[in-house]
Amino acid sequence: MSELQLHDVTVNRGAGPVVSNVDLVVRPGEILALVGPNGAGKSSLLESVSGVIPHASGDIRLGGASIAKRTRVQRSRAGIAHIEQGRAIFPSLTVRENIMLTAKTEPALTEVLAAFPELEKRIDAQSVLLSGGEQQMVVLARAFAAKPRFLLIDEMSLGLAPVVFMRLLPLIQQIAASGVGVLLVEQFTHLALGIADEAMVLASGRVGHAQAPASVLADDADLLRAAYLGG
Ligand SMILES: Nc1ncnc2c1ncn2[C@@H]1O[C@H](COP(=O)(O)OP(=O)(O)OP(=O)(O)O)[C@@H](O)[C@H]1O
């Protein structure tokens, strides 16, 4: 019962539903990849889970208790972290200052740097001076420092070359290995499926069943090609 569960969740945007009757479960320590073409509703689904936008109907449960009526801040306090699309760093702050926003204490910062050793040598650099890949590393480190129970990740690779994004994958795996359940939305579908424990396809706002990532690769090759190419 320590799971993040969505029951029959529908999300409206503008004229009508962009996510319809979605059921899914994310377990602690597991990476669930949510894949699908552009406009399928992936971002809207993540936003409804963290409370950025309301959902129209259905229930969202954390550890068995409904969080459907809670505000975004309350959901964050309950353990849901959301890395939204785009570089979510404060560019004028140093790496240390960015991470301390959630780490709060020096021992916690030390713990984060042990998990993200590449950031140690850049710790006093202004974040705007970091490469795109390093900036996203800071974003992940800050999310990790908040000690969430579940982490929603929305297209962290935006603007990054696949080879740069690949350096972030072990860090996402490490966060999951620490017991955090990860719901991963990623344009580089094959890379996301490569680190996922389970995968679900979201198309036109509807999800199929959770399945092994390898079977998504085999069964949904056309859809994935379209998603990968942005078509
Ligand atoms: N702020 C908004 N207002 C109205 N409609 C929106 C808004 N944001 C997204 N939409 C619409 O909601 C639908 C789902 O979009 P969403 O961004 O959730 O999909 P996505 O799967 O994350 O796509 P992408 O990979 O392109 O980000 C699309 O039809 C989109 O045009």
Automatic annotation (TrEMBL):
Q: Which InterPro entries match?
A: AAA+_ATPase (IPR003593), ABC_transporter-like_ATP-bd (IPR003439), ABC_transporter-like_CS (IPR017871), BCAA_Transport_ATP-bd_LivF (IPR052156), P-loop_NTPase (IPR027417)
* Residue stretches making up the ABC transporter domain: 4-229
Pfam families, alphabetized: ABC_tran
Q: Per its record, what are the GO molecular function terms?
A: ATP binding; ATP hydrolysis activity; branched-chain amino acid transmembrane transporter activity
Q: Does the keyword ATP-binding apply?
A: yes
Q: Which UniProt keywords apply?
A: Amino-acid transport, ATP-binding, Nucleotide-binding, Transport
GO biological process, alphabetically ordered: L-amino acid transport
Superkingdom of the organism of origin: Bacteria
Per its UniProt record, what Gene3D superfamilies does this chain match?
Answer: P-loop containing nucleotide triphosphate hydrolases
Q: PROSITE patterns, from UniProt? A: ABC_TRANSPORTER_1 (PS00211), ABC_TRANSPORTER_2 (PS50893)
Is Nucleotide-binding tagged as a keyword?
yes
**Entries under PANTHER family matching the protein:** HIGH-AFFINITY BRANCHED-CHAIN AMINO ACID TRANSPORT ATP-BINDING PROTEIN LIVF (PTHR43820)
Q: Which family does it belong to?
A: Belongs to the ABC transporter superfamily.
Descriptive protein name: Branched-chain amino acid ABC transporter ATP-binding protein
**Species in which this protein is naturally found:** Leucobacter chromiiresistens
Phylogenetic lineage = Bacteria, Bacillati, Actinomycetota, Actinomycetes, Micrococcales
